[in-house]
Predict the structure.
Amino acid sequence: MHCRAPYFQAQDLDALDRRLIDSYQRGLPVRTRPFHTVAERLGTSEAEVIARLERLQSLGVLSRVGPVFDHSRAGASLLAAVAVPEAERDAFAELINAAPGVNHNYAREDQAREHGYNLWFVMTAPDAPELEARLGALEARLGVPLLRLPMLEGFHIDLSFPIPWAELERI
Amino acid sequence: MSVSICPSSSAPTGDEKNHEALDRGVQGLDAADRAIVLATQAGLPLVPDPWGAVGREVGMSGEAVLERMQAMQASGVIRRVAAVPNHYRLGYVANGMTVWDVDDAQIARLGREVAAIEGVSHCYRRPRHLPHWPYNLFAMLHGHSVDEVERQAAVLREHLGEACRDHRILYSSRILKKTGLRLAGARPDAASTDTERRG
């Protein structure tokens, strides 16, 4: 994966596009003909709503239109980290990525420490025993201890943010 | 400060302590639910009747798909069905995982308060691993720049006050893997990798 600057122009998104994003990042109606309901609320047609959602997806402004699942209710998962030598980080990352159940793997930098935890990943499994089996197998393969960080309590699950439209127009 | 900035993390969740809750959650999804999850986790078809289109894919009626989606939403398996913005494309280009060593006696209250602070997307209590890992509160910060994330972290530091003994900010320098598979373990070997998504 790599980082890219925004490749769309905020000026290309008109008021209706922005209302679609602002209003429906928190939830679409889960009912018959959902885009028809959205269109009625926004004073436009169902076909127009669908066309705009397709365009926003193709621009990469929307990742997708669909369900957001609660991982902890749809299986077992756990955040883990390892501290590995910088020169060997890519090799360790390959082993982690190849392990069944790993669905995120981030290189992270702790600027205050030279030898901190620098690979962070999420291990998933259908259930808790299988999760532990996968973690144990990966730990043995890596030969370094895993920092296991299960979620004990979640304080926030809302992922909507105000979109800074005015600021984006200056990019 | 020379850090590169990357799209923000999706929810890293886990719960080792509460196996029973997890098992109930898994058992709560039957084969038809799982088929619907797999068919919709990368997004709904953008057509007038998305439920009918999903139903044709998984071999059930559109009404049945809609009813099951509503039931999964009611039970919390689905948090919401939404137009999911790519926050990175929308200007939130910096993310910092902040970790805090917070007084256990106050963490329940402080966690809720921190979660409400601007820029915080995920906020979790996680176990310490002493002596090398004393941090028990995680808050993921998102901003338009590293400077903004630093300012947000300063706000958190001030809010936590004397209840906080130590903290760190870990910036993502590279995304090494990020898959679109959200139903854990259903088809672990069929995980497709996509460049960005938000959970």
The longest strand of chain A covers residues 102-110. Residues 128-142 of chain A form the longest helix (15 residues). Chain A touches chain B through 98 residues (CB under 8 Å). Chain A has two domains: 10-68, 71-149.
